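tl;dr need the bound structure. longer version: we got a ligand (2'-deoxycytidine-5'-monophosphate) that a collaborator sent over and nobodys looked at where it sits. i said id run it. heres the input, straight from their email, havent touched it
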Amino acid sequence: MTVSTTDNTALHDDNSQTQPLRYPVICIDGPSGAGKGTVTWRLAQALDYQLLDSGALYRIVGLKAFEAGLVTADTSQAIDEMAVLKLTQSLDIAFVPNNASGRVDILVNDEAVGEQVRNETVGGYASQIAVFPKVREALLKLQQDMATRSGLVADGRDMGTVVFPNADVKVFLTASAEARAERRVAQLSNAGQTADFDAILTTIKARDDRDENRSTAPSKPATDALLLDSSMFDADEVYEQVKKHCQSQGIIFNS
Ligand code: DC
């Protein structure tokens, strides 16, 4: 498996040793819909750091596993971990920042999959394959390598606990399941789509439950993470609080 980064350098998973951190790393962990993506993007822009959207890696594997018939929406169905591992190892992934959309475009085997991986259904597939230790291990070194080229802002569930335990800054951003469901409903209706609050809330809670209770790298705050509940704050307020925390940990912002 190969992941290309913004400087077009291909990173190969052929070295199994964890390397010491040489550049600052900021970890933003927490459940879906807590606002991690927005904060991560803004920090990466302000600091000129690379951005690691680790959820996208799991979403890509989830989508490809679905396309290969290895995973379905029926969560009671057994999944072949070794087949998902093989598929994971065969993927060639590129992250390309898109200033116009404020997101990172994703190419898999040279094919754009960006919007397709963002929907809730694919989030569910991602959460299902993310329970497998071998799949997580296959993605681990690739994620860690992203911190060896420049500063990094990493968004995920286990950035501060497993992937970058020595990170300079760790934040665990959360929000009540209800607040996150409300945000999702607003997002969908802004996009002209109808949304059922109760159905969305049920999906969010089921995914939280699986992500928080798996045995390998469960979603949880690192002991040295700043815990921030974004339920009552807007995106600007959350960003300012995270920025202040980064500054208190020695990260220098030029603006
Ligand atoms: O952050 P997200 O919603 O894009 O993540 C999709 C799923 O991927 C999430 O439900 C669990 C999994 N995931 C993970 O296990 N570890 C990460 N570091 C990031 C995501």
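gonna send this back to them w/ a short note. The longest helix spans residues 197-213.
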